[in-house]
Design goal:
By secondary structure, the chain is α+β, with helices and mostly antiparallel strands. It is built from 16 helices and 15 strands. The strands form four sheets. A six-stranded mixed β-sheet has the order 10-11-12-13-14-15, covered by helices on one side. It has a three-stranded mixed β-sheet with strand order 1-8-9.
Length: 383
């Protein structure tokens, strides 16, 4: 067993999450792939997560990849949450997670009195309704409600539920994707029309692939970490984990043990933190969501300031791989007000790095920056 330090682990994960040296715009697809997708129930947060990794990336470039080039796709995936994923990897994610996620969604809808047969009938109706063009939840509801009202009176609530409802279920089947918004409303599109180049993948092959990709980005980790990240039961995660034991090795970190891919062990041993690695990560950044325990990221005293009720994850100040504070932003006309709340005093160099990161966020919003940190304020003109 190899002994490694938390400093080495942080350096390894920062590297795998592209939070060391800034990447280039042409690396967008590689970054989304290498991080196992960007959580995207708040799309502006997903955009800021990508901007934190790619200096100069703009919102139109992300939207073009999603809605025009279709190299990226927005779907429900790990933990039943919306993610932006590489379109060419979607068959693997669907095959790996579909059997587990669909069962969980069926149990959720059973609370509404809808059994598995009714769910499949409604899913087929949604798929048929989307044969011509993208539709919002309300438009889908209006299209299929007359047909299903008698057999499934709860259909409207299930279709228009804020957590995804039936649209989410059909998406997890691999049959739907999210389409471009109509105003403030999301739309659904048929996957076979939106991404026609599709090849089904065997479930076991996809599960093995998913675990390896997870360990590449989030290792060292435990089977409990993998289960929490994927949103599947421990018994299912353990079955996948056991199949890949010959590709893993165990490392000792302080008083705990975790696994890493054997091919990554040398990279982990050689990983070193760059001086003053400072990042401002947005809501739900995936760097914060890869492990069941968060003790490697944050002290217990500050935990609830980041990992809040109802699954809400605050934007954080990340210094050398650990959470050192929270931040928020508000756009006021051509000004972007950014407030920093550090958990402990910051050095002058750390403050300077935070100012630089905040200025980059203001540039993303094409705004001038008004920065406040523990009672001080500074203003920066828009570029």
């Amino acid at each position: 067993m190899s002994n490694v330090t938390w400093s080495q682990v942080h350096a390894f994960r920062l590297q795998r999450h592209f939070l060391g040296q800034p990447a280039l715009t042409e690396d967008l697809l590689d970054i989304v792939s290498g991080t196992c997708g960007m959580q995207a129930q708040v799309m502006s947060a997903a955009q800021l997560a990508l901007r934190a990794r790619i200096h100069g990336l703009t919102a139109p470039e992300i939207e073009r990849a999603l809605w025009q080039d279709r190299t990226l796709v927005k779907v429900w995936c790990m933990r039943g949450t919306l993610h932006v994923l590489p379109a060419h990897e979607l068959p693997l994610y669907v095959a790996a997670l579909k059997p587990y996620r669909l069962k969980q969604e069926q149990r959720w809808m059973a609370r509404y009195g809808v059994d598995a047969a009714a769910i499949e009938t409604m899913a087929d109706a949604i798929f048929t309704a989307l044969s011509a063009y993208p539709l919002t939840r309300r438009e889908i509801s209006q299209a299929i409600l007359p047909r299903l009202r008698k057999s499934a009176p709860q259909i409207q609530e299930l279709l228009e539920h804020g957590w995804g409802g039936l649209g989410k279920y059909v998406c997890l089947q691999g049959k739907l994707c999210l389409g471009p918004n109509q105003g403030q409303e999301a739309t659904f599109v048929r996957r076979d029309q939106w991404l026609p180049d599709w090849e089904d993948v065997h479930g076991e092959k996809a599960e093995n692939w998913l675990l390896q990709r997870y360990l590449q980005a989030y290792g060292p980790a435990t089977v409990q970490d993998f289960a929490a990240w994927a949103g599947i039961a421990i018994r299912d995660a353990s079955r996948i984990w056991d199949r890949l034991q010959d590709k893993m090795c165990t490392v000792h970190i302080g008083g705990s043990q975790a696994a890493i891919l054997e091919r990554d062990l040398r990279i982990l041993r050689e990983a070193a933190l760059a001086a003053g690695n400072v990042r401002l990560l947005p809501h739900f950044d995936v760097y914060l969501l890869g492990h069941r325990s968060k003790s490697h990221l944050i002290d217990d005293a500050s935990y609830k300031r980041v990992y809040r009720a109802a699954g809400w994850i605050s934007p954080v100040v990340l210094i050398n791989g650990r959470i050192a504070g929270v931040w928020s932003h508000r756009k006021r006309g051509k000004r972007l007000q950014v407030s920093i709340e550090p958990f402990s005093p910051l050095s002058q160099s750390q403050r300077a790095a935070i100012e630089e990161r905040a200025a980059d966020i203001a540039e993303f919003f094409e705004s001038s920056l008004e920065l406040a940190c523990t009672g001080t304020a500074a203003r920066y003109p828009a570029n």
